[in-house]
Amino acid sequence: NLLTQDEQVRCFENVADHLTDDGSFLIEASVPSRFYCLQNDQYVEAEAIEIDEVRLDVAQHDPVTQLLHENHVSISTEGVRLNPIVTRYIWPSELDLMARIAGLRLKERWGGWSREPYNSTTDKLVSVYGR
Question: At 22, which CATH number?
């Protein structure tokens, strides 16, 4: 994962260095606005509750670094299994600026892979960049 803004900009620059004139760079991302409604910048969500297993999504949000420290936890008769991940989210405007720094421009933006419209209620987005 690319955990700093600099690493993410370098990714855009690397793509731009290898992208053909008619090529496209597609990015799927979550829209991070939901993180700003969290109590104490953290949450616990039950992903599944079964007779012999419970799966939880546990996360802590750092709004300064835009990092989400997340752990998918499975508790079962076989024990506890942790699947941690740290990600840095990006606002759509930040994506567009990173592309511009790398010499790319936004060609299209959708609310998902079915090319549904992107709007204020969209949870995910797909951005298409090119020269």
Answer: 2.20.25.570
pTM: 0.83
Q: Which amino acid is at 53?
A: E
Tens of pLDDT, residue by residue over 74-112, are 999 999 999 999 999 999 999 999 999 999 999 999 999
Tokens (6 digits) for 122: 């969209």
Domain count, the chain: 1
Q: Are 129 and 104 in contact (CB under 8 A)?
A: yes
Under 8 Å between Cβ of 67 and 86: yes
Token pair for 56: 């939880």
50: left (phi over 0), alpha (psi -120 to 50) or beta: beta
Residues written for the chain: 131
What's the chain's Rg over C-alpha atoms? Answer: 18
Full domain range(s) for residue 9:
5-130
Q: Give the burial class of 51: count Cβ atoms within 10 A of its Cβ; 0-12 exposed, 13-18 middle, 19 or more buried.
A: exposed
